[in-house]
Specification:
Length: 198
């Protein structure tokens, strides 16, 4: 069984913000796979279905980003899901808007939601898909303010493309495996980090 979790904040107030890129990928993949997000349990809204014979749970935690580990841990414990069968999807300021990066494991990179999941599981050995949202350019404000802002008009088409790409990456991970997805979607990403490095 695969558990695919997108990070974000609940309520319409945050729907289009940068921090909700993970939620948006889950919604897009829900439409692509036909797995409806109609259940509420494990501190989440979620749905269960099959993709190419593989049982899949899609989930959006309702705990707010910084406490996402509470929801992920509940699913993992209840369904006895192995750490490497979790696929976490979240926003990343170290990637330019529209870029995605798939990794088999790693640190939180300063993302509080990912850190919450690592703490809850006692491991960082889970695959993840990072959706680039860029870094704030203007002086003033904080990173926390930035991730709770909507994308600019110029960024929106690029982000829509990234959300589509993220949903297709989820499908590839499930159907063909993580290595195939990395080969297909990571090309060129290293040179396109928002800081110039990856």
């Amino acid at each position: 069984m695969k558990l695919v979790v997108g990070l974000g904040n609940p309520t319409a107030k945050y729907e289009k913000t940068r921090h909700n890129a993970g939620f948006r990928v889950i919604d897009r993949f829900s439409g692509l796979s036909g797995i409806e997000l109609g259940s509420r349990k494990h501190f989440s809204v979620f749905g269960k279905g099959e993709v190419k014979g593989e049982r899949v749970i899609l989930a959006k935690p309702l705990t707010y980003v910084n406490l996402s580990g509470k929801a992920v841990g509940s699913f993992m414990h209840y369904y006895r899901i192995a750490v490497d069968d979790l696929l976490l999807i979240y926003d990343d300021m170290d990637l330019k808007p529209g870029r995605i990066r798939i990794r088999p494991c790693g640190s939180s990179g300063g993302h509080n939601g990912v850190e919450s999941v690592i703490t809850a599981l006692g491991s960082d050995r889970f695959p993840r898909i990072r959706i680039g949202i860029g870094r704030r350019k203007a002086a003033g404000g904080t990173d926390a303010d930035f991730v709770l802002k909507n994308f600019s008009r110029d960024e929106r088409p690029v982000i829509e493309e990234a959300i589509d790409k993220g949903a297709r990456a989820v499908e590839t991970v499930i159907r063909e495996g993580l290595s195939a997805a990395m080969d297909k979607f990571n090309k060129g990403t290293k040179a396109q980090s928002s800081k110039g490095t990856e």
